[in-house]
TrEMBL record:
GO MF terms, alphabetically ordered: FMN binding; oxidoreductase activity
Cross-referenced Pfam families: FMN_red
Family: Belongs to the SsuE family. Isf subfamily.
Name under which the protein is recorded: NAD(P)H-dependent oxidoreductase
Cofactor(s) annotated in UniProt: [4Fe-4S] cluster
GO CC annotations on file: cytosol
InterPro entries in UniProt: Flavoprotein-like_sf, FMN_Rdtase-like_dom, NAD(P)H-dep_reductase
């Protein structure tokens, strides 16, 4: 564990269901982040008061505190179940309350859970919104299909999937606070000749 790591990672759980598979996967992501020495916090949207977004009333309910917590994070992990091919309405409402100042330059990781097949569309939608908010979205993302068999008693049952979730946790710490992703270095000798 890196005791000098002062990065703060916030996960936003876009599921309101008791026994949520999304919440379980995000908890595992934060456990991996904490193992590097980062501080972590799970923002469970089931416990947050956010009315449907009205731009004329953008500071109602828990919106100011939610935005403050997101602004305080070095990295944010957005997690959602997939509903009708996209992410949850409560997460959409949360992101509607946020603006570019809340996410600009923030490292963001993505995790989506589906009861059926691979939730690629929801990941693509979240990526587009995060980028529109000015966030740095890490390339590594987590899709959990067939969640009823992939998550049992709040734990991931598949080793490869658990490794992907943990990699997301370490990636958001590694890239948290960067102004831009590091450039790759290429060995000119390894390049093919023309």
């Amino acid at each position: 564990m890196d005791v000098h790591n002062s990065k703060h990672i916030v996960a936003v759980c876009g599921s309101q269901r008791d026994g949520s598979h999304t919440r379980a996967a995000l908890a595992q992501t934060l456990t991996a982040a904490a193992a590097t020495g980062a501080s972590t916090e799970l923002l469970d949207l089931a416990d947050i008061d956010l009315p449907v977004f009205d731009p004329a009333q953008d500071s109602v309910g828990d919106a100011p505190e939610l935005r403050r917590k997101i602004q305080s994070a070095d990295a944010v992990v957005l997690g959602s179940p997939m509903y009708h091919g996209s992410y949850s309405s409560i997460l959409k409402t949360t992101l509607d309350y946020c603006n570019r100042e809340d996410f600009d330059g923030t490292t963001v990781g993505l995790l989506v859970v589906a009861g059926g097949g691979f939730p690629t569309p929801a990941l693509e939608h979240l990526r587009s919104v995060a980028r529109a908010l000015g966030a740095w979205v890490v390339p590594h993302q987590v899709a959990i299909p067939n969640a009823n068999s992939a998550v049992q008693d709040g734990h991931l049952t598949d080793d490869a999937l658990r490794e992907r979730v943990e990699t997301l946790g370490t990636n958001v710490v590694e890239y948290a606070g960067v102004d831009e992703f590091p450039a790759t270095t290429v060995d000119p000798a390894a390049q093919p000749a023309d």
